[in-house]
Amino acid sequence: MQSSAPIGVLDSGVGGLSVLKVLHQMLPQEKFIYVGDTARTPYGSRSETEIRQFVEEIISWLEGQGVKQVIIACNTLTMLGIDSLQKEHPFELVGMSKGEQLLLVASRKKKIGVFATQFTISTEAHKKAILAVDDSAEVYPMACPKFVPLIEGEQFDSSQIAEAVAEYAAPLKEAGIDALILSCTHYPFIKDIVEAEFGAGVTVIDPAEATAQTAKASLEVNNLLSTDGEGSVAICCTADLERVKRLAGRMLPAACCEFREISLVP
Ligand code: DGL
Questions:
Q1: How big, in percent rounded to 5, are the helix, strand and coil portions of the chain?
Q2: Which of 35, 100, 112, 208 could share a disulfide with 129, CB 3.0–4.6 Å?
Q3: Domain boundaries 100-206, CATH class
Q4: Residues framing ligand 1 (Cβ under 6 A)
């Protein structure tokens, strides 16, 4: 495996671009290949069998591109278990951080909210991770199924998004949380709306930075960090290239990105 090989980053759609943004800033000399399965998003309300098949198709496609690492920039897919996705692949897979340490530092009252997809919330993984560090914490998980279709549909200024944020926030505000994690990589696209809804007393955490740090540390340990040459970003999607370009513009400077529509199955 060569350090000059690209890094794969994947998601069900455009959400993982919020992680790619942080990765590109942290590792500017790396070549990134992003895959968003925009033809089949959202994954969060689908069955486990179905999303396992989809993610395996994406990982195999990235393997064909000769990647040295794959970042699962999707909390829903991370919930399937990184070990079970690893299989015989010759590169390391890195999943999304659950952010439990960051949350417990940020939350003085130890009342913590979790916004995520239905699938992620049903696993209770974030709640368990927080309680494993501090069993006195109170965790308030909230499935937010309306968010991904509205974000993929670029409905940022719509009344639907404002109403959905208010609806999902209400029980958590009532519970008196003071820290909230955005445990779906799509949600950083609406972080400002969520922050405005909760107000200054609630710290809203995006686990992208912690995830990127883990990816970097793993490359370092395996002597795979690219330390010279120019980095690049290729953004591939399975549908709606023009929409993906517009959404990518919210996360990355368009000038540094190359865009491609791909087919995952030959
Ligand atoms: N962006 C994804 C996540 O982090 C999944 C969204 C979806 O496809 O439902 O969970």
A1: 45, 20, 40
A2: 100
A3: alpha beta
A4: 11-13, 15, 41-44, 74-76, 117, 120, 148, 184-186
Per-residue confidence (pLDDT) for residue 227, from 0 to 100 = 83
Closest atom of ligand 1 relative to the 185 alpha carbon: 4
User: Catalytic site residues?
Assistant: 74, 184
C-alpha–C-alpha distance, residues 145 and 148, integer Å: 7
Query: Rounded distance, CA 69 to CA 63, Å?
Result: 9
Q: Measured from the CA of 73, which atom of ligand 1 is nearest?
A: 4
Q: Scanning the structure block, which residue is given the tokens 């998004």? A: 161
* 96 CA closest ligand 1 atom index: 4
- Ligand 1 centre to CA of 116 (Å) is 8
pLDDT at 89 over 80: yes
The rounded Å distance from CA 74 to ligand 1 centre is: 5
d(CA 170, CA 27) in angstroms, rounded, equals 38
Residue 230 CA to ligand 1 center (angstroms) comes to: 30
Identify the helix (H) or strand (E) that includes residue 252: none
Query: What are the tens digits of pLDDT across the range 239-254?
Result: 999 999 999 999 999 8
3-state SS, residue 134: coil
CATH number of this structure's domain 7-96+209-261: 3.40.50.1860
- The CA distance from 97 to 79, in Å, is 11
pLDDT per residue as tens digits for the range 158-181: 999 999 999 999 999 999 999 999
- SS3 label, residue 112: strand
C-alpha–C-alpha distance, residues 141 and 256, integer Å: 37
Q: Which strands make up the sheet holding 179-182, listed edge to edge?
A: 138-143, 111-116, 179-182, 203-205
Q: How far is CA 263 from the centre of its chain?
A: 22
